[in-house]
Amino acid sequence: MDERYLKLLSEKFPNAQAVITELINLRAILSLPKGTEHFVSDLHGASMAFIHMIKNASGVVRRKVDEVYGTSISEEEKRAICALIYYPDERLELIKRFYAGEEVDGILNTNSQISNLTSLEEWYRVRLHQIVNIARAVTIKYSRSKVRRLMPKDYAYIIGELLHESNLEQDERQTYYNAIIDAIIETGSADQLIIVISYLIHSLTIDTLHIVGDIFDRGSGASKIMDVLSTVRDYDIQWGNHDIEWMGAMAGNLALLATVLRVSIRYANIETLEEGYGINLLPLANFAMTIYGDDPCSIWQTRDFENNPRLTRSAQLMAKMHKAISIIQFKLEGQTVLRHPEWKMDHRALLHHIDFQNGTITLPCGEGKGEVFQLLDTHLPTINPDDPYALSQEEKDLMDQLWRSFRKSEKMQKHLRMLYEHGSLYLVRNGFLLYHAAIPLNADGSFTEAEVCGQRVAGKALMDRTDAIIRQAYYGEGQDKQNALDYMLYLWQGEFSPLYNKDKMTTFERYFIADKSSHEEKKGAYFVLSDDEKVCEKILQEFGLNPATGRIINGHVPVRTIKGETPIRANGKRFVIDGGFSKPYQEKTGIAGYTLIYNSHGIQLVEHDSFESREQAILSGSDIHSRTLLQDFSGKRMRICDTDKGKELLEQIASLEQLLHAYRSGTMRER
User: Fold this and answer.
1) Burial of 307 (0-12, 13-18, 19+ CB in 10 A)
2) What is the share, in percent, of the chain residues with pLDDT greater than 70?
3) What is the pTM of this model?
4) CA distance 560 to 507
5) What are the angstrom distances between the C-alpha of 47 and each of 52, 150, 266, 309, 479?
């Protein structure tokens, strides 16, 4: 080993005893069961369901309660324990109000579960014992040092004493625990301890969280999801197409910035922009009223406006804003694709194909190539027929204002950094290959070779090159940065983009042309061929995984369970876990999301029903009802030594053994 590396290592482990201690620790860790990994995808801004999923660990917490208590307590009691663990702050407030004599409507089974506990002190005593028992069951497979690191320092000693078995006899041990809990209650520390232990349970029931794309989209809670992720100990994100859309907008791609605004307005979701990120949309509203004041904007009516009581603007104003930003988007997209002929996307610059005099357009590509269509809206006062992609001065000023608002939003920029620091286009982890949408394939199953910013690449090389370009759009400089930032638009809607992989995105046609044949978007070969086991094995091998044991995890395409579709594809080689976390997608899927859980025993694929509400979960202990679709448990329990983390630890052990040899042989001096 390089002597310089050993010297650096010796700064952390300055003598033989320090090395020996660490070697013992690492070898012990290797023998522990692997932590539980959770895989979810396509959250689409559904923050309430996601946050509850984090709190209940996709049903794992409830299963722990069942394991610990079995039939010894009632169903209502179990729900009460779970409600306290999920939402300790809010649940404690309700309980204290109840014991103070207030009437609290809806609180879980008041007569059978609370009134038989005659005082708040008795309630504290019972519940503390219960959640300590659950915490003990959750922490048993982790090292004490790991559990201790997750505890607040002020409570580490007390919780440690409660969680770990002592050498006392059973009666003496129970007396000891009771004395600790009595002291906690008497000193007024019960609330804080319940909260701390509950959050410890949250942290350990999900050891690692993998989000396989699309945190963002039409749902109103994407910023809340990002806020929650900032508190999660270990998570990663595989970027989805909607994440790239928002990342490009946040980083300064004005075409994608306009796209984010258009989609948000179209689906009556401006909460993420205005409340989540503090984006000022007043300039857009003023511009829209000035330009389209007398325009009915009938085809631009916002969807689901009537179902969003938080919107304060009128439907007419929203329609005008919708039209204004859409026209700007089409102009900016046209500018971008025309300055990148290498993308071969000139057919998506459509404004110069409009016959303004007759109110028609001649489509330049597809089945209807050369066909003339009547436009549904011909009032286009901001488009100059002689230079249709040029922004007017007013439009330029508007986009400057909107970009400044994006750039100055501290939370938006913080979340953009999180997406880059914790994100990647794909991930290889513990035998799984994670990516959101596709690996572009030819019709014969071979990897499509495509040009990515000057390099022709295919398969894994295409994914690596694309990942590098996405990072260059944020971290790069000069013209390379600008080209990479432009390429984010290609990733959003390009034919060979691994995040889109369709022949075109027909946004313009869907607004302006009634004939639905012009709306068709043909999917790439991947979306058919990836259900073939042999194709999946080829993809796994391309990424260095064992094709016999590896598995692919995708999102992106909603699984229509109501039509008999299954998330388990290619004879179990591929899992598609887009089950509709976001309510708008649940009409297609018939369910409310999937979680793939990979623990030391094996794999579980869990299917979720719709989440009722956070309020009901706090009041009555309602939960997300889940069903296990697949259990693939092996007889041998997986240890950390069997994981990718274990390989890293073994490398560390080898380095430490060399350092120990250097100390003992005298080639390196101890300190």
Assistant:
1) exposed
2) 95
3) 0.92
4) 23
5) 8, 24, 20, 18, 37
CA distance 7 to 365: 64
CA separation for the pair 101, 354 (Å, rounded): 71
Of 61-70, 247-256, 544-553, least confident by mean pLDDT is 61-70
pLDDT at 312: 63
* Distance separating alpha carbons of residues 515 and 511, to the nearest angstrom: 11
- Nearest CA to 642 among 428, 426, 431? 431
**Hey, what's the torsion of the CAs at 214, 216, 218, 222, to 10 degrees?**
130
Which residues, 6+ apart, have CB-to-CB distance to 621 below 8 Å?
A: 76, 79, 80, 82, 83, 108
Q: What single-letter DSSP state applies at residue 276?
A: I
Residue 634 and residue 573: Cα distance in Å, rounded?
17
Asked if residues 258 and 329 have their Cβ atoms less than 8 Å apart, the reply is yes
Whether 225 and 27 have beta carbons less than 8 Å apart is answered as: no
| Structure confidence by residue, pLDDT tens digits, 223-244 | 999 999 999 989 999 999 999 9
Q: For the purposes of burial, counting CB atoms within 10 Å of the CB of 205, is it exposed (0-12), middle (13-18) or buried (19 or more)?
A: buried
- 347-375 pLDDT, tens per residue? 999 999 999 999 999 998 755 567 899 99
Rounded Cα distance between 436 and 41, Å, is 8
φ and ψ of 160, to 5 deg: -60, -40
* Nearest CA-CA partner of 438 in 529, 365, 374: 529
- CA distances, 226 to each of 50, 411, 613 (Å): 11, 10, 20
